[in-house]
Design brief:
By secondary structure, the protein is an alpha+beta fold. It is 56% helix and 10% strand.
Length: 363
């Protein structure tokens, strides 16, 4: 009896110990679950695993044919969709080293316009194979070289005639004949004109990185250098006859010449502003500078001032060569102004309805 009672007591102790242990384990589990739930809530909502998209690069094959014979020259492969015509020219140069990129002209069709270097291949591709026609543009020179040659030549040539270097004029006449003040003033104005051109080429104008044919450089130099020689020969000749109305004619013309040169400079500065260049250009508005008010009347005031300078120089020197040069320059600038005016009409129609191209109220 005593043994049985003892065994029941021991079983009761075991049950109590098991209940205590179970409660402690349950409490610990509840604490762990509570901690885990707090951690999940603090971490925020579950974020989906990002899906990595593999972009497929499209390649084109550019077949280059001779524009005259229609024969295949080469195939430029592995041309990406982001490549430009300039990139194609670079690869074409690697395949055919004798044609460097600046003398390569590429067309979509024979007789069509040459494609600009910035054009994207994808924009002209109808399929994975693009056919372009090649034309050799000949030996090329940069536009900076063209401008420096055009402007430096007349500046030096005029000074050679002004100094009356021997073998140009009669030595006896050159030493005895006195020069009229207009001769010195004409040399000053001529130098100011071309020095302004050179300085604006360096510091104002954003000269294109493109190239032009060497033949164009030769034509431009022949025109400017030839006329400068003719003009300088007459004005600096020992037998040069001064203007008919004397100092009054010279003074008024010289003042008007300097006004037009100043106006031309300020107009070029305005046109060189980033807002007025490139594809997103805006039409220039007049500023507080009075020389820019010409934008109210004409679309190309730089040509207006340029013609004004040469007309003033013609009246000041009263020589036939200057008059002929002024006439030819006026015709050329009129054609340039009309071309630009048509472009402005398409882009800025609301600003251009009352403007003339070059001469206010006339054309």
């Amino acid at each position: 009896m005593f043994k049985r009672h003892k065994s029941l007591a021991s079983e009761r102790k075991k049950e109590l110990l098991f209940q205590r242990t179970s409660r402690s384990i349950f409490k610990n589990d509840m604490r762990d679950f509570h901690s885990l739930s707090q951690f999940v809530l603090s971490a925020g909502p579950l974020k989906p695993i990002p899906v990595v998209k593999h972009s497929k690069t499209i390649h084109f094959e550019v077949e280059i044919l001779d524009a005259q014979t229609r024969k295949q020259i080469c195939i430029v492969d592995k041309v990406t969709q982001k490549s430009t015509i300039h990139d194609v020219k670079q690869k074409f140069h690697k395949a055919c080293p004798k044609w460097y990129p600046s003398r390569v002209g590429l067309q979509l069709e024979c007789g069509g316009p040459f494609l600009k270097d910035y054009i994207n291949i994808q924009s002209i591709a109808a399929s994975s194979i693009v056919t372009l026609y090649f034309t050799d543009l000949g030996q090329q020179v940069s536009w900076t070289t063209v401008f420096f040659a055009e402007y430096t030549g007349p500046l030096l040539i005029y000074l050679i005639f002004y100094l009356r270097i021997p073998y140009i004029y009669n030595t006896n006449e050159s030493s005895t004949a006195l020069r009229h003040p207009v001769v010195h003033l004409a040399c000053f104005c001529h130098c100011v004109h071309y020095i302004r051109y050179l300085l604006e080429t360096l510091f104002v104008h954003k000269v294109s990185r493109g190239h032009t044919a060497l033949n164009n450089l030769m034509k431009s130099c022949a025109f400017y250098w030839g006329f400068t020689s003719w003009i300088a020969y007459y004005i600096n000749h020992p037998q040069y006859t001064p203007p008919s109305f004397g100092y009054k004619q010279v003074t008024i013309s010289a003042i008007n010449f300097l006004i037009c040169e100043t106006g031309n400079h300020f107009i070029n500065v305005v046109l060189a502003h980033p807002d007025h260049t490139g594809h997103n250009a805006r039409f220039p508005n007049p500023t507080y500078n009075p020389f820019t008010w010409m934008f109210v009347l004409v679309s190309c005031p730089n040509y207006t001032y340029e013609i004004g300078s040469w007309i003033s120089f013609t009246i000041m020197t009263q020589t036939l060569p200057v008059g002929i040069f002024t006439l030819l320059m006026s015709i050329q600038m009129y054609l340039w102004a009309q071309k630009k005016h048509k472009i402005y009409l398409k882009k800025f129609n609301s600003y251009m309805h009352r403007k003339s191209a070059m001469i206010p109220f006339i054309f």
